[in-house]
Amino acid sequence: MATTGNASVATGTSSTTTTKRKPVFVKVEQLKPGTTGHTLTVKVVDANPVVPVTRKARPGTSMMSRPSQPSRIAECLLGDETGCILFTARNDQVDLMKPGETVILRNSRIDMYKGTMRLGVDKWGRIEATEPASFNVKEDNNLSLVEYELINVNDQ
Fold first, then answer.
1. Single-stranded DNA binding protein Ssb-like OB fold domain: from which residue to which, for each copy (predicted)?
2. Is 3 a residue whose pLDDT tops 50?
3. What is the rounded distance in angstroms from the CA atom of residue 89 to the CA atom of residue 67?
4. All structural domains of the chain
């Protein structure tokens, strides 16, 4: 019987089961610029639609074959008992953002817009309506009013 360098090769299937990990809910005051993967329970304080933007196709692009639909965008003020932040709702998300509603944002991210923080949920995240929360939104701690400045550190 000849042996090779790989005498013991595992030929079975692994019977490990993957379990979902519990989401870690964060508060608004814990959000920092450039971070992702946040799960929050927040109340909608205000929702203001922004002028619809229609994308125009350039000749010779693949967008010529598809009719362009205007994007619906709304700037919403969301918050919890620790603070509030502006949220950019896009398309179907706009319908969920009604003042007074309580929503859960899963896998949300912080975008920077003109030096200020904005909360957003892209295609990898999810927004769910939930039962009304018992907390009052702390509107005097608006994280979107804090202006950040990008500093490049060069070693000289």
1. 31-129
2. no
3. 22
4. 28-52+68-145 (2.40.50.140)
